[in-house]
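note to self: the first set is below, dont mix up w the second
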Amino acid sequence: MYLRPRIIPCLLLEDGNLVKSKQFKDNTYLGDPINAVKIFNEEEADELCLLDISSHRNNKVDFELLEDIVSEAFMPLAYGGHISSLDEAKRLFRMGFEKVIFNTAIIDNPDLVRAVVDFAGGQSVVASVDVKKNFLGRYKIYVDCGKRSISQSCEEYVSFVEKLGVGEIFLNSIDNDGMMKGYDINLIKKVSSGTNLPVIACGGAGNLGDLRKAINQGGAHAVAAGSLFVYWGPRKAVLINYPKEEELKEVGLF
């Protein structure tokens, strides 16, 4: 049982490497993901989210890499990236992943999402919801790593996701991704107030105070971040880091 909201590093995998994106593009190579996982393990991260952004292009899950990652991790793990069958999801659970994450499959193969929910329970299935503002300032849902918009409104999509039986929404702002200028608080409010599902906010955290705002002002149940936990300082030196409990108390996350 957590005494505070969960704080989750979100790691992007591309062709077996650890990378970081800006607005879902301009990926920067950061190094070996195994080393990052080891550090987060030592720092006792609450949970770890792994998203393979090359798996859709490669049309497969890199089980060999994931086996190596699981062998080094002793915190709860969630994985997303071209899970195309119930058997693949079962294999991930057997390996040690506590949750699987779906994005494009929610639209293209909702029966798969339902099948995994039926097998593992909703608490083990996460819906990744990627959102971007259009030129009118309205929120649009995207799939395919932010490359394809869908016609449903944000409200309609969240309602559809709920009916699939998933246990959480991983909400990511494409506009704020990697910018380190804060979360889209209005987006978090909009989604969290319109669903009974826990919402994990992601996209834009630049400091620990941003995490607090996503929780206290946005209504998120948990917060995830990428750049905040892989960069350090104004020049963004690559340094895997995770906050100490004392730091979290100082910014009011307890």
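second set (the one i keep forgetting abt)
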Amino acid sequence: MPEGPEIRKAADQVEKALKGREVLDLHFAFPHLEEYESILKGQEVIHVDTKGKAMLIRFSNDYTIYSHNQLYGKWYVRNAYNYPKTNRQLRLAIHIEKKSALLYSASNIEVLRNYEVEAHPFIAKAGPDILSEHVTAHDLLLRFTSDRFRRRRWTALLLDQGFIAGIGNYLRSEILFAAGIHPGHRPMDCTSSQLEKAARASIDLMWRSYQHKGITNDLSLAERLKAQGAKRYQYRHWVFNREGQACRICGTEVVKIIAASRRCYYCPYCQRKEE
């Protein structure tokens, strides 16, 4: 599933193609949305933003298209009416004079009036979006130590979109590693130093992934490994998807566990479980 950085990057591409331009044609694959085609044709796209893994395309007549890629959704921005060769099903097509923004495979698409967006069930429950809102480490520390979240295991908490919007499976493992937190711990089990590191890592790694094509590893180390001929999957992360390989810090073998029904990776030494 694409995580916050990938959706934010897709939103940037869609906005670059469509913003300030008249929609000449628009098509929804779902019959219950067809009535909105005539409402949105002829309008301008004024902004494209995100809330975690959801994208919001804002139109000049105060309507918004809400979409969530879920597991398989994928956006393409191409020259007008130049459809990609793919087995995916086209769900939404927005055409302007020179470009088309095409959403494939996603089933969660809605059209809302602007005033309805904040009350949408996903938007209303979502936590802060680090890439689309001003979120500080102090803001996150307050969430970590709140009665609502402090007693929950990090492995479940970091996947909860009501905690921090946009964090998914690879960011979960990487944030916990950067903070030196064992995946079995809860915020209340952590030292103040670990909580501060987790707050900074949540912000820093989200932005690093967004700005550097999914890389969460130290950027200088990633560049060295790349120069040595390593493939992207080999230099991209600190621990995620590196089961059995040496920790980049201490050399201990990285371990994979299943937590909250998803794979999670950690270093048993750097993330020791101290009782």
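remember for set 2: The first strand starts at residue 25 and ends at 28.
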